[in-house]
Design goal:
about 80 residues; mainly alpha; about 90% helix; rod-shaped
């Protein structure tokens, strides 16, 4: 989480620096580059939030399914005395 946050903050500072230089020298290309870097920072943050929720759900389902399998195995071992 902290690495992603650091990347987003650095991209944000870089975008602001590019836009400031573009404003001072009246260059459209730097303004466009700053806008693209800011969009990239937003994209990284959006992907992180979407993937973190998805991964948490997958790990929760995986833990739940392994827990239910271990309960089934315990139930079978308890019934082994019937043989």
């Amino acid at each position: 989480m902290l690495i992603i946050l650091a990347i987003v903050v650095l991209l944000g500072f870089w975008a602001l620096r590019l836009m400031e230089q573009a404003f001072q020298s009246q260059e459209f290309s730097r303004m466009l580059a700053g806008t693209l870097v800011a969009a990239a920072a937003g994209g990284v943050l959006t992907c992180y939030f979407l993937m973190s929720d998805t991964l948490q759900m997958l790990f929760h389902l995986q833990a739940h399914s392994s827990f239910s399998h271990s309960q089934d195995l315990d139930l079978l071992s308890d019934l082994s005395w019937l043989d």
